[in-house]
Amino acid sequence: QVQLVESGGGVVQPGRSLRLSCAASGFTFNNFAIHWVRQAPGKGLEWLTLISHDEDTKYYADSAKGRFTISRDNSKNTVYLQMNSLRSEDTAVYYCAKEGVRGVLIPNYFDNWGQGTLVTVSS
Amino acid sequence: EIVLTQSPAALSLSPGEGATLSCRASQSISHYLAWYQQKPGQAPRLLIYDASNRAAGVPARFSGSGSGTDFTLTISSLEPEDFAVYYCQQRSTFGQGTRLEIK
């Protein structure tokens, strides 16, 4: 079965960096885009970024542009989210999610999600 | 940028009753809409994609309809496990959610 497991969350001071990982299994990893979606405490879902199946295409929400970088290693079935210059408003649970449509370069729908990893930005 | 507006914000119903949740897009999005269910402390779960297709393993009491700007998620007879928050989504945009509560 499809499994996505996030790691790398924790408490970090404002202005510092953190790298999240998303390890995938149970499907042909290099056929699907992967997304990161976050959820601030008590709030709704916010799409952040996607990376295409072949790493060639990356899109970012305005809130992530310039500070967050998505990458993937298809040999390790893993996607990464490098987050720099973190702010208190970045405090959230970060989910990775599998794109539901094979080979597409834009978000369609997210058919499998990880359990999430909590990032807390606080001094 | 497309805005998705969900209504109502909260809905109080009893098990066995039917539920109708609405999602309205600020411009036409054809049939490209998905619905998710999220329970406290859990990740979202895909229920419906492309407006009316049930995802794998989703019970038949969940159905989606609509096209263009107006979409509906219907739960025909609420089970105790259906009380949760429901989100609609189109491309990179999510609605603000509808909280379905036990009356």
Summarize the structure.
The complex is a heterodimer of chains A (123) and B (103). With 123 residues, chain A is mainly beta.
First-to-last CA distance of chain B:
36 Å
Distance between the termini of chain A: 40 Å
What shape does the CA trace of chain A take?
A: globular
Q: List the helices and strands of chain B in order.
A: EEEEEEEEEEE
Helix proportion of chain A: under 10%
Give average pLDDT of chain A, whole number: 97
- The class by helix and strand makeup of chain A works out as mainly beta
**Radius of gyration based on Cα positions of chain A:** 13 Å
What does it look like?
With 123 residues, chain A is an all-beta fold. Chain A has no helices and 11 strands. In chain A, strands 2, 4, 5, 6, 9, 10 and 11 form a 7-stranded mixed sheet that branches. Chain B is built from no helices and 11 strands. In chain B, strands 2, 4, 5, 6, 9, 10 and 11 form a 7-stranded mixed sheet that branches. A 4-stranded antiparallel sheet of chain B has the order 1-3-8-7, with no helix packed on it. In chain B, a hairpin with a 3-residue loop joins β5 and β6. Chains A and B meet through β5 and β10 of A and β4, β5 and β10 of B.
Search tags:
heterodimer, A: 123 residues, mainly beta, 7-stranded mixed beta sheet, 4-stranded antiparallel beta sheet, B: 103 residues, 11 strands, 0% helix, globular
Could you outline the blueprint of secondary structure elements for this entry?
The complex is a heterodimer of chains A (123) and B (103).
Chain A: E1 3-7, E2 10-12, E3 18-25, E4 34-39, E5 45-51, E6 58-60, E7 68-73, E8 78-83, E9 92-99, E10 110-113, E11 117-121
Parallel strand pairs in A: 2-11
Antiparallel strand pairs in A: 1-3, 3-8, 4-5, 4-9, 5-6, 7-8, 9-10, 9-11
Chain B: E1 4-7, E2 10-13, E3 19-25, E4 34-38, E5 45-49, E6 53-54, E7 62-67, E8 70-75, E9 85-90, E10 93-94, E11 98-102
Parallel strand pairs in B: 2-11
Antiparallel strand pairs in B: 1-3, 3-8, 4-5, 4-9, 5-6, 7-8, 9-10, 9-11
